[in-house]
Amino acid sequence: MEMKLNLRTAVPLLVLAALALVPLYATFAQQPFYLTLFGRIVVFSIAAVSLDLILGYGGMVSFGHALYLGLGAYVVGILSYHGVDNGFVHLGATLLLCAIVGAVTGLLSLRTTGIAFIMITLAFAQMFYFLAVSLKQYGGDDGLPVSAGSRFGSVTLDDPAVLYYAAFAVLCLCVWAGRRLVDARFGMVIRGARQNDRRMRALGYPTLRYKLVAYIISAMTCGVAGMLYANLTHFVSPAYMAWTASGELIVMVVLGGLGSFFGPVLGSAAMLLIEEWLKGMTEHWMIIFGPLVVVAVLVSRRGLYGLLGDLQVRLSRRARTAEGKA
Question: What is the pTM of this model?
Answer without folding.
Answer: 0.92
